[in-house]
Amino acid sequence: MNWIFQKPDMVDFEELKQILKKNQYRGCELSVSNLILWADYYHMEYTIVENTLILRHTDEDGKYRLSYPIGADTEEAEHVIFEMELEYFKELCQEPYFGLIDPVMYDRINQWYPERFSIQYERDWADYIYSREKLTNLAGKKLHGKRNHIKRFQEQNPEWSYETLTEKNVEECVAMAKQWCKENCSKSDEEKKEENNLVIRALRNFQKLSMKGGLLRTKEGVVAITLGSPITSDTFDVSFEKAFSEIEGAYPMINQQFVMHELQDYVYINREEDLGIEGLRKAKLSYHPEILLEKGIVKEK
Questions:
Q1: Biggest alpha carbon–alpha carbon distance for the chain
Q2: Which of 55, 80, 243, 297 has CB 3.0 to 4.6 Å from 67, enough for a Cys bridge?
Q3: Could you tell me the pTM of the whole model?
Q4: Continuous segment of H or E residues that includes residue 105
Q5: Domain co-membership, 117 together with 135
Q6: Is the predicted pLDDT of residue 157 greater than 90, yes or no?
């Protein structure tokens, strides 16, 4: 296979956007903005084969890991491309090795090659996907606590307002992200610092990346920000969300307001994985996701 892989960058946005218009899978890594923003951190490259996207990650040991074919016109076309991926591994003299495979993808692989492949799901990679209606209304006993947090935010900040991210307020959001990192990024936490750098890059390129964003403002200034982009026609990915933790209710408030003002055309909201961080897992589970989208590694048995 004479495939040429390259790192996704800003100049590739339109090409990737056209391919991913056909995407039907809801994993957070399949938004165009995430592919571009996280490419360096996750050592990720891509190629286009017969109008289908293939992602390639390089592990620390130098092994290649391919994605499932994304954006193929039909299931039959997916099968053809997957067969080509198997041939690619054979030419590399490497055992087949696929990453970020969700249950629907794995079911199809099993249909094509019964009992040939096994999957090991990684709980830390599972995406939390919520209904837009639930995040907007926060109805029911299970979300009573979220409603209380929002009420306290409103009571303690009577002059609060929500704003859509625009060119006029984006630098205020950048300043907020920098201050947030000063308060929350320890010297040893490289991933948190890198994520905050990507927040700033995303903010300053939100129009080029077709991202939506929003902010909360109080009399003290911008206290919470969020932004993301579509994955499929019915699913939106919230890539980044930051709030000052000392302001009670700021996180649930920006969550609800962003969905309410910007995302009413979507059915599902993907709020990404918890990376095995205990506090983050507890917070994401507290919203009671509609789907916990597992993803894993597929190898031959």
A1: 64
A2: 55
A3: 0.95
A4: helix 103-112
A5: no
A6: yes
